[in-house]
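Propose amino acids for all 96 sites.
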């Protein structure tokens, strides 16, 4: 699983980068099912996380999370992402 993290309109601090890496470990259980994770963080008045996950069998999951706090926006996005990945993993296991 390759990860691409990019900040739009601002520079990610070391602490923020580490926070993202730590949170992405929540989907490590599906590492063999995921080709890549494309994560983009944009900051206007609030933080906007925009993430696309490409699965090995073709489909994509696209999730977003917005909040005025960096950590809260990241958590919102990760909660949705974690649920999507679990659903996709369950779908694949049902087909086997």
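Proposal:
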């Amino acid at each position: 699983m390759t990860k691409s993290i990019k900040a739009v309109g601002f520079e990610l601090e070391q602490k923020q980068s580490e926070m993202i890496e730590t949170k992405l470990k929540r989907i490590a259980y599906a590492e063999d099912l995921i080709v890549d994770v494309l994560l983009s963080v944009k900051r206007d008045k609030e933080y906007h996380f925009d993430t696309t996950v490409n699965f090995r069998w073709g489909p994509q999951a696209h999730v977003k999370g917005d909040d005025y706090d960096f950590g809260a926006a990241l958590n919102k996005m990760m909660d949705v992402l974690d649920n999507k990945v679990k659903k996709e993993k369950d779908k694949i296991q049902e087909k086997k």
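The mean pLDDT is 92. The chain is about 40% helix and 35% strand.
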